[in-house]
Amino acid sequence: MAESRARLDQPLGDRRGPRLRYDAEAFGRSTERIARFLGTGRYLVYQSVFILIWVLLNTIPGILHFDPYTFTFLTLILSLQAAYAAPLILLAQNRQDDRDRVNLEADRDEARQAKADLDYLAREIAAIRMALGEVATRDFLRSEVSRIVDDRDEDPKAEKRDRKKKNAEQSAG
C-alpha cells in the first residue's frame, strides 16, 4: 500500500511537460531573412497594396464588408505584424552584433600578428644595417688602394721589393 503512494524524497520528473526543441541557428537565419525583407522597399509596396485593397474592399458599396469602417480587424493585423516584426529585427541585429564582434576580434588578432611581423622585420633591417656598417665598401677599398699606390710612389725601393717578391713566388710555384 505504501508503494502506490508517491515518494516525497524523489522528484516527479519533468513537470513542465514536453519541451519545444528548435535549432537556434536555423531560427536565427530565418529571422535574419525576415528582418532583411522587412527593411526593403518591396515590403513597403506589398504592405501598401495590401492595405489599399483591404480598405477598398471594405468601403465600396454593394460588396460584403468583412471589416466595417473603423477597420478594427486591419488594425489588429497590423498591430500583430508590428509586435512580431520588432523582436525579429532585434534578434537579427543581435546576431549581426555577434558576427561583428567575432570579426572584430579576428581583425585585432590579425593586426597584432602584422605588428609583430613588422617589429621583427624592423629589427632584422637594423641588424643588417649595423652589419653593413662593418663591411668594407667600394669607396673605402678605392681609398685604401690609392693610399697604398701613393705610398709606393713615394718609396721606390718598395716597388723593387714587390717585384722581387713576385718573381720569387712565380719561380717557387
Give the overall shape, derived from the CA principal axes: elongated
Given the structure, what is the number of helices?
5
Low-pLDDT segments, ≥5 res:
none
- Sheet-strand content, in percent, reads under 5%
String of helices and strands? HHHHH
**Class computed from helices, strands and strand pairing:** mainly alpha
Sheet having the most strands: none
Rounded Rg? 46 Å
- Summed up, the domain count is 2
Q: Provide the residue-averaged pLDDT.
A: 84
Helix content: over 70%
How many strand elements?
Answer: 0
> How far apart are the termini?
123 Å
Keywords:
single chain; 173 residues; mainly alpha; 75% helix; 0% strand; 5 helices
What would your notes on this structure say?
It is a single chain. With 173 residues, the protein is mainly α. It has two domains: 110 residues; 35 residues. It contains five helices and no strands. Helix 1 crosses helix 3. The longest helix has 62 residues. It starts with 23 loop residues before the first helix and ends with a helix.
Fold topology:
Layout: H1 24-38, H2 41-59, H3 72-133, H4 138-154, H5 156-172
Helix pairs in contact: 1-3
